[in-house]
Amino acid sequence: MAKSTSGFKNKRRGGYRKPANNIQTSGKQGGSSSGSPQFIEVDVDRLSYDGKGIARFNGRACFIPDALPGEKVKAQITAANNKRVEAKLIKVLEASTERVTPQCPVYEECGGCDLQHMSHQSQIAHKQTVVEQLLLRGTDLEQVSWHEPIVSENQGYGYRRKIRLACYYDASCQVLKVGFRAARSKKIVPVSDCAIVTNEMKALLKAVYGLVEQLHQDVTKTSVLRQFAHIECVADQDSQSVCFRLLERLPEPVESIVSQWAETNELNLWFRVGNEPLTLKRGMESVSCLKDGVKLAYSPEDFLQVNAGVNDNLVQRVMEVLNIQASDRVLDLFSGLGNFTLSSAKRAKRVKAVEAIDVMVEKSLDNARLNQLENVDAEVQDLFDEAALQWLDDSCDCLILDPPRAGAELISQHVGRTKARRIAYVSCNPQSLARDSQWILQQGYQLDSLTLLDMFPQTSHIETLAVFTK
Ligand SMILES: C[S@@+](CC[C@H](N)C(=O)[O-])C[C@H]1O[C@@H](n2cnc3c(N)ncnc32)[C@H](O)[C@@H]1O
């Protein structure tokens, strides 16, 4: 793979996130006392959990995005306090063998990815190390055992099937800007050549930018272009959908330009205007198909796992490790549209799906009907609320947990009450996973295995499957 060894430009031009712990952004401790920029040359020793290179500088940890362990780099200090220094990469002086050339033409500006400069294999190894360190630190475990990771194809490119495009009408140049936000900034970066999206999404992006161009020609009223808040796009082999999130309804002639555009590109077209309900203007709800034949209907605004290939393998792996028997009751918590519910229902006696959003609960029941599954119950519950514990006692043989980043602390604290023999915990935050694992272990479960899920390659987001048994 091609290596980029020098002249690596700063990719954080768009802005700088002021660190929380009272860090100075003036020259007092970080820059020179005159306030002029301070450049340093340092050796990078390791990566932080969120993928920044860490070096030592004057006895403090110095965090440098885009730098890799084993590299000597020139960096510019952007902020500092007594404990830590923040710096931006100016130049790689000696490159790591793990450094690769990012495929995306807008990688340096866009806030979407932060690890494209690291080989795909090293990203996976790094993420595995982070999970292991956090688990060993946060629990009484002395070692953990790993399954083969579930790896994204194509070296971790071309996988993302769902994106949200930010929109901003720039009155100074009378232009509607559409794209991803730059890192820690409101600036919008056009992403017509985004390298991490699916081929179908690439085609859809081309179509969206074509529509934006047409609107600039046909719609002269700025009051119309201001109405675009954001655009949700979903595109994979199964279907392509777009949802325009609008502040106010578009005038009829403009709406018909958009409808005609959707017709020409054979897209499912949705609008959400202000707080009004989501409406399907053209086409139909999308349906995603899993390997085991399960069909999942969804709209572009629903939570959908962004990496279809990894998700499909994940669902099958969860089914395997839970080893669901025909007499089993399965409890699927944080169930969304029923991604795990339906495959479980094909194997189990009965499945109960629990989720906070009522629309998702309704859709999971619709999805059960779509798959002719009659053994699914679904209900709305806030699983961070003590009231959710009332029905936990002796509720299942197998438990699936797939919480948001905050994790599932309350449920983990009481998980023994479910009487589950096996637990599959799908985590998108290794810190909450480590905390919750300790609660689960304290109730007599053992951690059987971990699987690194390469759900978000080229980014520092970490997804893991942890399997507990009793
Ligand atoms: C990571 S998603 C997983 C969804 C689903 N399991 C899937 O694979 O598509 C987390 C889900 O938890 C739901 N959720 C978030 N907070 C919740 C809460 N406090 N109680 C119950 N569900 C919640 C979200 O609405 C979302 O559907």
UniProtKB/TrEMBL annotation:
Chain's gene name: rlmD
Pfam families named in the record: TRAM, tRNA_U5-meth_tr
Domain of life: Bacteria
The TRAM domain, residue ranges: 31-91
Region (Disordered), start-end ranges: 1-37
Similarity field: Belongs to the class I-like SAM-binding methyltransferase superfamily. RNA M5U methyltransferase family.
Protein name in the entry: 23S rRNA (Uracil(1939)-C(5))-methyltransferase RlmD
Active site: 428
Binding site for S-adenosyl-L-methionine: 305, 334, 355, 402
Xref: PROSITE patterns: SAM_MT_RNA_M5U, TRAM, TRMA_1, TRMA_2
InterPro entries assigned to the protein according to its UniProt record, in alphabetical order: MeTrfase_TrmA_AS, MeTrfase_TrmA_CS, NA-bd_OB-fold, SAM-dependent_MTases_sf, TRAM_dom, U5_MeTrfase_fam
GO MF annotation, one: rRNA (uridine-C5-)-methyltransferase activity
GO BP annotations listed: rRNA base methylation
Keywords: 4Fe-4S, Iron, Iron-sulfur, Metal-binding, Methyltransferase, S-adenosyl-L-methionine, Transferase
